[in-house]
Amino acid sequence: MKKLFCLISIAIFLPVVSWAACTGESPTWTTDGNELADLQECLNEATLKDGDTINVIAGDGAATWATSADISATDLNIIGPGETLLDITCTAATCISIGVNSGVSSNSRVSGFTFINGNIQLTGLNTSNAFRIDNCTFESSSDRELVISGSNSAIPPVGLIDNCTFQSTRVVVYGTYYGLNENDTQHSIWARDPDFGGPEAVYIEDCVFTANHPGTIDCNYGGRYVYRYNTVTLNATYANEFHGVQGLNRAGQRWEIYGNTINVNAETWTPSYLRGASGFYFDNTIDADYNYGPILKVERSCESKSPFDYCDGSWPIDGNTGGKSGWPCRDQIGRVQDTSLSSGTSGDDWQSQNSYPAYAWNNTNDFTSNAACPNEANLHNVENQDFYNKNVSFNGTTGVGVGTASEFSAFSASCTAGVGYWVTDEGSWNLSGSGEQGRLYKCTGNDWSLLYTPYEYPHPLRDEAVAVPANAIQGVTIN
After folding, report:
1. Are residues 24 and 137 in the same domain?
2. Do 293 and 410 lie in a common domain?
3. Count of domains for the chain
4. Bond into 458 cis (ω within 30)
5. 470: pLDDT strictly greater than 80
6. What is the DSSP letter of 32?
7. 296 within domain boundaries
8. Beta bridge partner(s), residue 306
9. Residues 282, 187: one domain?
């Protein structure tokens, strides 16, 4: 009898352990990852504020979400337990939506999850804020896209994707999410300084990609990306893509591609297929099984793109220099900014564009023009006019030289306008503790001016103070 009494007493007074759907208060909340409804309960909290953190514990370690978590009104840190600890299968293809064309949110962070057959969509973002997606894995049984797009703003999307693993999932960056019918937003982006070496772009760094066609990243509609220090294993024709003018839409505006390792599983075409705008391409290690180096293409040289047809000297959207069949073609390789704000869809008020050639150096292979199109190779997309490759015998007249500051000084007195020189022992942007520094100079005609310094690496957003939860005991309620 005494034993029974003791057992009953223990049962009465023993603490009951249960998982609360959403616990905590601003600025820190905790929920379980087993059910999307639990996370949504935190997202619906009336006292939730910008900058709050929601820690998602592992629960059973696997979950299925039938719809997406919507982060559109508040800037939040959604922190999982670690990408190896919680696998979320997303039956609706999108696991988390940020922005949702609202134009009011983007300064959010998602970290520490594995998403299976799903992705994160960042659409219609308020581009004055920067998002971060880090330490996540995206596993897919078919090719998918993580889409990032801006709203009606003159600034394209800004943010960081770092230390993520992508399997059959590529990143797509759009300056806007519409056609050229959103109050000339794409024109506004193209009237803006492209901010080379600055923060106004989507940065993808220290990620691992395993990809099929169509590769790992694309860009269009005034978007900008910086793709650096990634490792790619490819079963596709190319790793990087960048769109030029197609129809009424404008090309993407800026690309920087450097420090990447690109491997292929079979002989294929090109590591990068860059079809518009301009940028810098350096220190990329490229598998020898590629047939060509990175290919630069001008969209309308040999292809008709309605409604403006070929770049042939008959369309007001182009530069139409005499004897060059329309050159420079609108938004082509070597152009990054309109001289003033363009407007409309007819092309009658699309302003001229300044020259800004592309530069390549220290790659396994440097740029190749699209030789299959004679107009492009001979008129529109010409080496030492629209792009410059490293010249191992650099003497200040063609290409890009590479060397120390003391070696560079030998060319200070005389040079041909447009050529470049990468000075390897200048700059302090690489804070990783390994790898080189460097700055690129451009000859302006018998003189040199600093053209480009890469942005701080690792990206400053990686100093984010919010950390992945240390253990899974958070969220236990003792009654």
Report:
1. yes
2. no
3. 2
4. yes
5. no
6. E
7. yes
8. none
9. yes
- What pLDDT is attached to residue 9? 43
Handedness of CA 150, 156, 160, 166 (dihedral sign): positive
Give the integer Cα–Cα distance in Å for 186 and 10.
Answer: 69
Q: What is the pLDDT of residue 182?
A: 75
To which H or E segment does residue 3 belong? helix 2-13
Residue 430 domain-assigned (yes or no): yes
pLDDT digits (tens, 9 = 90+) for 319-345: 999 999 999 999 999 999 999 999 999
How buried is residue 266: exposed, middle or buried, by Cβ count under 10 Å (0-12/13-18/19+)? Answer: exposed
φ/ψ bin of 291: left (φ > 0), alpha (ψ from -120 to 50), beta (otherwise) = alpha
- Phi first, then psi, for residue 42 (nearest 5°) are -65, -40
- Tell me, yes or no, whether 185 and 239 share the same domain: yes
The domain containing residue 408 runs over which residues? Answer: 399-467
- From 127, 236, 115, 111, select the one nearest 161 (Cα to Cα): 111
476 domain-assigned: no
Q: Using CA atoms, how far apart are residues 324 and 326, in angstroms rounded to an integer?
A: 6
pLDDT in tens, 138-183: 999 888 999 999 887 888 999 999 999 999 999 999 998 877 877 8
Task: Give the C-alpha separation, 1 to 374, whole Å.
Answer: 100
**Contact between 247 and 305 (Cβ < 8 Å):** yes
Please indicate, yes or no, if residue 7 is contained in any of the structural domains. Answer: no
CB count in 10 Å sphere of residue 451: 20
Mean pLDDT of the chain: 88
Residue 26: which CATH number? 2.160.20
* Dihedrals phi, psi of 187, to nearest 5 degrees: -60, -40
Integer Cα distance of 251 and 350 in angstroms: 13
Please, which pLDDT band fits residue 465 given cuts at 50, 70 and 90?
low
What is the structure's pLDDT at 12? 41
Shared domain for 79 and 177, answered yes or no, is yes
Question: In sequence order, which residues have a C-beta less than 8 Å from that of residue 383 and are 6 or more positions away?
Answer: 367, 369, 389
Assess whether 44 and 133 both reside in one domain: yes
Q: pLDDT tens digit string along 200-258?
A: 999 999 999 998 878 899 999 999 999 999 999 988 778 999 999 988 999 999 999 99
Nearest to 62 by CA among 79, 41, 82, 85: 85
The residue whose two tokens read 């839409």 is 249
Q: How far apart are CA 270 and CA 188, in angstroms?
A: 32
Distance CA 404, CA 52 (A): 47
Classify burial at 393, counting beta carbons within 10 Å of its beta carbon; exposed 0-12, middle 13-18, buried 19 or more. exposed
Q: Is residue 34 domain-shared with residue 85, that is, in the same domain? A: yes
Q: What is the distance between the alpha carbons of residues 331 and 244, in angstroms, rounded to a whole number?
A: 6
pLDDT level of residue 103 (50, 70, 90 thresholds): low
Kindly report whether the global pTM for this prediction surpasses the value 0.85.
Answer: yes
Q: Which residues pair with 64 in a beta bridge?
A: 89
